[in-house]
Amino acid sequence: MARSSKPPTARPNVKTRSVSTIEKISFPFLKLPAELRNHVYYFVVKDPSPIYLNARSPAYTHATSSTTPAKSSSLSLLFVSHQVSGEALPVLLGTRTFLVANTPFEPDLNVTEALLAIGTTKLGLIRKMTFEINYCCIDHTSHWPHIFREIFKAMPAEKRLDMVKVVIADEMKQVVEEESYGAHWEYGVQQLLEPLRAWSGIKTVEFSGDLVGDYCAVLERDMMAEE
Questions:
Q1: Fewest 10 Å CB contacts: which of 34, 95, 96, 141?
Q2: Facing residues of 133 across strands?
Q3: Is the dihedral of CA 189, 194, 196, 200 positive or negative?
Q4: Angle at the Cα of 193 (from 192 to 197), degrees rounded to 5?
């Protein structure tokens, strides 16, 4: 039997085909109306987990460093392009909760770098903040008044916080009887929270945790009062 003289059909180049497919599915996102892009940003950055303002937090590093963040982080959207970052950052600031927290015996509360990276104007877009105070003794938590003042000073006068939560955990309750230091911690907590009296016009203020007393109720009322 005579063989066919028809030349064999060349197999498609897999690599070329993959590139071609990618080119076909690319989408001109930036040509969408700004309102639609904001909806996309909202769904990408929406996350119940907070963003730390402390310098030691991994989430803080992702939010402010020039290195590429983990792919699983919604903050990676800020590294797509200058335009996307500029559009997505205000959405992120107004959506996520920003957290400052200390550990009992390692109270690293450096928020200066984060505040400078965000900038005064954009700090005014933040709507929700949480402060987790792990109270051991006044010596180990003495940085908190300065932190409250620094954040308050860095934010613009027209700030409009929707919610501030303050959680005060008693790190000594497992080793010391409450009656032996009750008066001490109450005075210490008041000292720590005193700068919050300058914060006002907040829609919702919540104090919770082991060391919440009558002073917190008064402070909550003052912080929610209009200026």
A1: 34
A2: 168
A3: positive
A4: 140
pLDDT tens digit sequence for 131-178: 998 877 666 778 889 999 999 999 888 777 899 999 988 776 655 555
Average pLDDT over residues 182-191: 73
According to DSSP, residue 69 is labeled P
For the stretch 111-141, pLDDT in tens is: 888 898 888 888 999 999 999 988 776 667 7
DSSP symbol at 65: S
Burial of 51 (0-12, 13-18, 19+ CB in 10 A): buried
* Three-class DSSP labels, 173-189: CCCCCHHHCHHHHHHHH
Rounded CA gap, 195 and 191, in Å? Answer: 8
Distance CA 180, CA 74 (A): 46
Note whether 190 and 141 are within 8 A (CB). Answer: no
Q: What would the two tokens of residue 12 be?
A: 């498609």
Closest by CA to 129, choosing from 147, 104, 146, 141, is: 147
Q: What is the pTM of this model?
A: 0.75
Give 79's contacts (C-beta < 8 A, 6+ positions apart): 68, 69, 85
